[in-house]
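Entry for the shared binder. Reason: the reviewer on the internal report wants the predicted structure included alongside the sequence.
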Amino acid sequence: MLAHRSFLLLTAAILAGCSAQILPVGSTDDGGPPADASDAGLLPVDAATPSTFTAAQVSAARSNCSLPHGPIDGYVTPDELRAHVAGAWLLCGTTQFEDLSGIFTADGNWNALVADGKGGLLEGQGVTNQASFQVILLDDAGTTCAPVLDSSSTPGGCILDFRTAAGGISQFSVSFETSPRRMLVGSGTDWYVALQP
């Protein structure tokens, strides 16, 4: 929890010292209008991503948590970041944020995955289990995120602005790996693995 708060304070300090450009989901990388301006509210989970996962699927994903880290899977544009984050993610390890496993959709929505009582996960409902997100460019003049070059590089000039339906706000960077597909939230230890249907 302390590392998460420290990251949020660091992010706030960085944002206070930098100019930023917020790109609504569906906008073009040059800041143009969203593809569908009426798409302002929370939407159902993308039909291509399942909203339930069996105990076997959760167990298979959890086994990927302990595998060696794979190659970096970088992104350059906000659209690439949106594509990378889209899908179902299982939080690895034991932290206070175990309820943050969830489904990110390419259209900028997130739904928590909650225990189904049988070892599986299902899409949570209600204001504490739904959120929206958008990509923030940290450079007003920029149209790309600084690429992640190697394991010692930090994520570039894009962060996710995450807002829960209950009013909570978080901003964080994300990095990705392949083999297995993994996501690191912030610069801490919150690793996620992809849940496969």
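Summary line for the report: The CA atoms of residues 47 and 141 lie 35 Å apart.
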